[in-house]
Amino acid sequence: MRIYFCALIFGFFLLCSSVQAAMTSSNFEIRFDSINSGGLDNSTSSNYLLYDTIGEQATGYSTSTNYSLYAGYRQAEDFRPHLSLLIGAQENNTQTAYTALSTTTKAVTVTSITHFATDTFIGVVENQGLNQKTIIGKIASIIGNVLTVDKWDGQVDQISANPSGGDDFVYRMEAQNGAFGQLEPNVGKTTVSRTNVSTNSPSGYSVYLQSDGYLRGSTTTHIMDVADGLVSPNFEEYGAQVYGFTATSTGFDFAVSSTIREIQTSSTTADNDRVAVVYKINIVPYTPALNYQQKVRYLLTANF
Amino acid sequence: MRGYLVRFLSFIALFGLALTMLPANAGGVGISITTPTNGEIDSAASTGFATTTISWTSSATYLNGATVQLALAPVPSSTAITECLPATTSIGGATYTFGSASSSGAVWTLTGNAATTAVTLCVLVPVTNGPALISAKNFSEAIVTTGATVDFGAAMFYVNGGNDVTITATVPATLSFMITDPANINLEQHTCNLGNLSMSAVNSCSYRLKIQTNAQNGFGAKIKEDHDLATGYATITNVADLHVTAGFEEYGVNLVTSTYGGRNPNTGLFTEPATAWHPIANDYSIPTLATGFVSSTNAFYATSTGATQLVTHKASINGATVVGSYSQRVTYYVYGHF
């Protein structure tokens, strides 16, 4: 009897040795299934479609030295790696004053909604200039003159709720060009760009920044790169600083150069991770009169 | 004997159980981009397609029947991708078939076992709209393999500057010129009085030229006189021997240029000197035709005395010099080299 029992166990596990446990027939295949207490594939509202499963336990992502596990029925639905990078820059012609800001309700009240639409990015700049405070977000709704974003990123804990001084603005952030405009000696100016990263890479990602050379007006004339960590009045300097929850290279103005620099990183998946890159410039009275230009590229690498 | 058999079969059963619990090979793989550099697509072939090549090291060698699924998101075009021709794809050296090509991806199916773990996929991606590249766009190429080894990974591609921000700035032109008191460069001066001339000394008077510009290539300044230093019926002889000397009837001008003020293009500091028309140790006559006098090849910043140009007029007489009141008008022209 014991012999038969052992043989039965042996035979059972041999039959079950296939890694692919999908159920198949001649014409059909069930690639994955799960017995749960509920769930639907077609829950809907006006703007959303929901696929849900109720009653599973211990779902989610986990790892060991050599393996990774996506546990749960819904994990198998979209196993395909996902990676996305969106870039945008401040549109100066959309400059709009704002009268109130809330980081808790994720809203900003503007004087006009002319330049704004849902699903577009905005940047809020307080005390515009070399020491400005900057936050970014994506408009989720517009009610009256109130723009509500999905979330704020940037200097969220430093920007104030009540603008004053007439130098506080909201910009749309969908351009490919970051324009300082016409410069004046010892009047520092800024322009902002933003990233938006999404990935299901469980080990995260990094975003790098690299320019094609100096901010230059000719082959022999360029604006001096900042070297002391701070773009300041009375000096001809150009640089940038990064702000946001996933920002690196923070706390100082760095030279935007052909040396590749990491500006954003995470060690886990990204759901619209963003940083604001604030470019800063100051010229002196006899900085050469030219039109200056520089191309800055953003490179995303995921750690699958 | 029976007990031995029971123990043997138990061992085999447990061994089989352990085997079935071993998971298949699987894992994230790092995708590297071979072409184009950094994944940046800035041009396309005349066919409208750009070549993209990605590579990775598989977790284990892929076996016959395994598939490599490539997905593009978002799709750059509604046109289907194709395999590179000649095909440079290599899936560990295995034979394969290429199919299911669409605008959003393709599938390679192995028809033999791979010999190595080195994998390279090359596809042609449509990136034009008519003759021109599509508007700036970023898309990912993601891979998932099936079979005993399940690998996954993704890499980013950027079309037509989809990952670029172009920074621009304009510095407007400035040019200024002032003739100043030699001791106070903020005080204008438009006369130079040589006083009562004598045979025993050389008389002189001075002023400074304060020239500033942000012209990339600097400035030039010319000098001319309306006529020689003259009264209505006589002139003072122009110096010809490089030095106005007491006891001789001579008149001339001396220029001492600034030792700094010009912008150094490498440092941005205003450390470069201006350039004089002639050696600064000598005296020269003033031409009646506008002639280059002082210049710089750099933007020029003159907020201190040392960055200005010192002009000194000198005159002396002899016993035959006609009595009278002598004068002339000296004119300067300044222009920037933008």
Keywords:
heterodimer; A: 304 residues; six-stranded antiparallel beta barrel; 1 helix; globular; B: 338 residues; mainly beta; Immunoglobulin-like; 2 domains; seven-stranded mixed beta sheet; five-stranded antiparallel beta sheet
Quick description:
By secondary structure, chain A is mainly beta. Helices cover 5% and strands 43% of the residues of chain A. In chain A, strands 8-9-12-11-10-14 form a six-stranded antiparallel β-barrel. In chain A, strands 7, 16, 18, 20 and 21 form a five-stranded antiparallel beta sheet that branches. A three-stranded antiparallel beta sheet of chain A has the order 19-17-22, with no helix packed on it.
Number of strands of chain A: 22
Largest sheet of chain B: 7 strands, mixed
Rg over CA atoms of chain A = 26 Å
Average pLDDT of chain A, rounded to a whole number, is 85
Please, could you describe this protein's structure?
The complex is a heterodimer of chains A (304) and B (338). Chain A is 5% helix and 43% strand. In chain A, strands 8-9-12-11-10-14 form a six-stranded antiparallel β-barrel. In chain A, strands 7, 16, 18, 20 and 21 form a five-stranded antiparallel β-sheet that branches. In chain A, strands 19-17-22 form a three-stranded antiparallel β-sheet, with no helix packed on it. Chain A has 304 residues and is mainly beta. Chain A has one domain (85-302). Chain A has one helix and 22 strands. Mean pLDDT of chain A is 85; it is low at 13-22, 40-51 and 60-70. In chain A, strand 5 (60-63) and strand 6 (68-71) form a beta hairpin. Chain B has one helix and 26 strands. Chain B is rod-shaped and about 145 Å long. The model of chain B has no long low-confidence stretch (mean pLDDT 94). Chain B folds into two domains: 24-159, Immunoglobulin-like, CATH 2.60.40; 175-336, Immunoglobulin-like. Chain B has one helix at residues 2-21, and strands at 25-28, 32-35, 40-41, 49-57, 67-73, 82-83, 90-91, 96-102, 105-110, 118-126, 128-129, 132-133, 137-146, 149-159, 164-170, 175-181, 184-188, 203-213, 219-225, 250-256, 262-263, 270-272, 275-276, 291-296, 309-316, 330-336. In chain B, strands 1, 3, 5, 8, 9, 13 and 14 form a seven-stranded mixed β-sheet that branches. Chain B starts with a helix and ends with a strand. Classes of the chains: A mainly beta (304), B mainly beta (338). Strand 22 of chain A pairs antiparallel with strand 15 (164-170) of chain B, so a sheet runs across the interface.
